[in-house]
């Protein structure tokens, strides 16, 4: 009977580390400490581990795959137009280059970072996208340590040393608030997304500053999880308050559609009693009555730009950041002067 050939799993058990850590150490990749690397290599030599010739040939080969892990509830992805359109844009660019997208839904950012480490250590991806950047966000430093090509789909202020692809939300908010102020609105609330997300924080700050500059009331901002249920709940709170706003901006169109339903249910006329504006202009915004005034942008193109930037990094080692066009305001039937 032939003797068992030593494997990476054997080294991992002896060293008390994961197989991914062993792969990092044996392939001289970042991601493990010098002491751990030395210990793993010593164990490999001691037990007589030798790399498989086919695996060694593949060590520096491209996977022709890039990764995206999302810490969002899986049920939300099926109804969230933004991510579906973003992914369609990424896929369009990747498929034209013979590259694939590895997509994984995870429970939290820590699991997302671990997923990226595993993919990179196992050679399953050539690079990754980071979305929903938080404050603070350990993924930024963790990915930078690995030396993995990565594109942050978010503002440069939160990207650290990684390459960002972003659009200017403050410009879109300025156009919207200026338009509502011209109609005569002075009290403009917002139903926003998750408060820990950088783009939510940037929108919050921009709304306060722009509202003050236009002489509008201090804005009331209600943070939610982007779902229709929470959008509806936030709308009920706003329009039931003693100081009801005359206009509400929603951070996505699912919440805006839910808000429209709540306003009509509570006997308000949209737009005479309450004007509504939706961020992201999917088909949802256009099929309801009245159709929603929306901040429209080409989200598939946004995804394509992110994919193009990441593929350039994989091919050339680096790529400049890319600022996409800001969302533009498309007035429809859900906004009018307040009565």
Notes on the structure:
- Helix 12 links the parallel strand 8 and strand 9.
- The strands form two sheets. This protein has a six-stranded parallel β-sheet with strand order 2-1-3-4-5-11, sandwiched between helices. Strands 7-6-8-9-10-12 form a six-stranded mixed β-sheet, with helices on both faces.
- Helices cover 47% and strands 15% of the residues.
- The protein has three domains: 51 residues, 434 Repressor (Amino-terminal Domain); 128 residues, Response regulator (Rossmann fold), CATH 3.40.50.2300; 129 residues, 3-Layer(aba) Sandwich (Rossmann fold).
- With 339 residues, it is α/β, with parallel strands linked by helices.
Per DSSP, what share of the residues sits in E-state strands of 2 or more residues?
5-15%
> What gross morphology would you assign?
elongated
Q: Give Rg in angstroms.
A: 24 Å
How many distinct helices? 14
Oligomer: single chain
Query: Largest beta sheet: what is the strand line-up?
Result: 2-1-3-4-5-11
CATH architecture of the largest domain: 3-Layer(aba) Sandwich
| Overall strand count | 12
Query: What integer is the average pLDDT?
Result: 92
What summary fits the major beta sheet?
A: 6 strands, parallel
Q: Helicity range of the residues?
A: 40-55%
Query: How do the helices and strands follow one another from N- to C-terminus?
Result: HHHHEHHEHEHEEHEHEHEHEHEHEE
Q: Class by helix and strand content?
A: alpha/beta
The fourth-level CATH homologous superfamily of the largest domain is Response regulator
N-to-C CA distance: 90 Å
Low-confidence stretches: none
Briefly note the CATH topology name of the largest domain.
Rossmann fold
The CATH class designation of the largest domain is Alpha Beta
Number of domains: 3
């Amino acid at each position: 009977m032939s003797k068992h050939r030593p494997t990476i799993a054997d080294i991992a058990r002896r060293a008390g580390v994961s197989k991914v850590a062993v792969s990092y150490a044996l392939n001289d990749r970042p991601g493990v400490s010098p002491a751990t690397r030395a210990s793993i290599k010593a164990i490999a030599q001691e037990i007589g581990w030798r790399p498989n010739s086919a695996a060694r040939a593949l060590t520096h080969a491209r996977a022709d795959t890039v990764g995206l892990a999302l810490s969002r509830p899986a049920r939300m992805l099926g109804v969230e137009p933004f991510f579906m359109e973003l992914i369609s844009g990424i896929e369009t660019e990747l498929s034209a280059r013979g590259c694939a997208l590895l997509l994984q839904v995870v429970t939290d950012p820590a699991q997302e970072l671990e997923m990226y480490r595993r993919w990179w250590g196992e050679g399953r991806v050539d690079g990754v996208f980071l979305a929903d950047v938080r404050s603070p966000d350990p993924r930024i430093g963790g990915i930078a340590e690995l030396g993995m090509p990565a594109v942050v789909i978010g503002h440069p202020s939160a990207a650290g040393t990684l390459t960002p692809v972003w659009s200017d939300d403050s410009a879109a908010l300025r156009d919207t608030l200026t338009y509502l102020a011209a109609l005569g609105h002075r009290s403009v609330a917002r139903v926003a997304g998750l408060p820990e997300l950088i783009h939510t924080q940037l929108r919050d700050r921009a709304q306060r500053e722009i509202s003050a500059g236009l002489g509008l009331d201090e804005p009331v901002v209600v943070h939610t999880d982007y779902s229709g249920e929470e959008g509806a709940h936030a709308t009920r709170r706003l329009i039931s308050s003693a100081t009801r706003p005359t206009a509400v901006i929603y951070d996505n169109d699912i919440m805006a559609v839910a808000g429209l339903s709540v306003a009509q249910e509570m006997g308000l006329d949209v737009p005479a009693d309450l004007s509504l504006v939706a961020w992201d202009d999917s088909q949802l915004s256009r099929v309801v009555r009245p159709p929603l005034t929306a901040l429209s942008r080409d989200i598939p193109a946004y995804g394509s730009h992110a994919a193009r930037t990441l593929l350039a990094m994989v091919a050339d080692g680096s790529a400049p950041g890319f600022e996409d066009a800001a969302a533009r305001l498309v007035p429809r039937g859900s906004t009018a002067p307040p009565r």
